[in-house]
Design brief:
This protein is an all-alpha fold and 240 residues long. It folds into 2 domains: 143 residues, no CATH class; 43 residues. It has 10 helices and no strands. Helix 1 runs antiparallel to helix 2, helix 8 packs across helix 9 and helix 8 crosses helix 10. It is rod-shaped, with a radius of gyration of 43 Å.
Length: 240
Amino acid sequence: MKKITTNHILWLVYLSLLAVLLPHTAWAFAQFEPSNSTMGTVTSWAAAFAFESAIAALTHKLSKHIETVPNRQNKIKRWSERYLNTYSLALLAALGVSSLANLAHAVEFGNEMRIFAEWGIPFGVYALAFGAVLPVVSYTFASVLSNVTETEQEQDEQLTTANAEVRSLRSQLREANNLRQATEKRFDAAGDMFAKLFSAEKRERIIAARDQWPQLPGASIAVIAGTSRSYVSEVLSEAE
């Protein structure tokens, strides 16, 4: 058995709201049909059902669209991507018709209420409150039903940014460590070379100079090694 969630309850509330608005919308359409006409009654109820159903369908479409929009840091861009689209425009058009129909019904049949009369509140205020505002309230359900939680998404975005910064820092540390190791190896190699060049053994000095500067002539190697040219030739010949 499928579990009933809060979202299911919200949809039930939303559809109940549309069901309450349906007779008022049907009454408004009936004003444009012949009186006491069966066909006119059927037409007005069909038109009302079409508009209220369109509101429900477009609300569902808009809520699903809102879920697909990334939670960008730029709130204006995020809002425009969520609500400035064909679903939203079509929903506003359908809500406009339903709002006018319910406002007309409230004005036609609304009676003055004591609380408003004693407080001096104009009739138009509560006609709007109990008529036109009801369909407009349904527009907010698109956002509520979209399952978008701003705080959680903002935290996720901040966490993603932090993780990216951590990965970048780790990469920089690895590069710095690799550079340090490479530098240490070069210094170690240079140290070994200098140790051989200044070795007490003339033979080791000659071979080290030859390995470090293979293009040098024997005379230059003899100067570096502090020995004779003939001894350099003898050592290099044996080394080959």
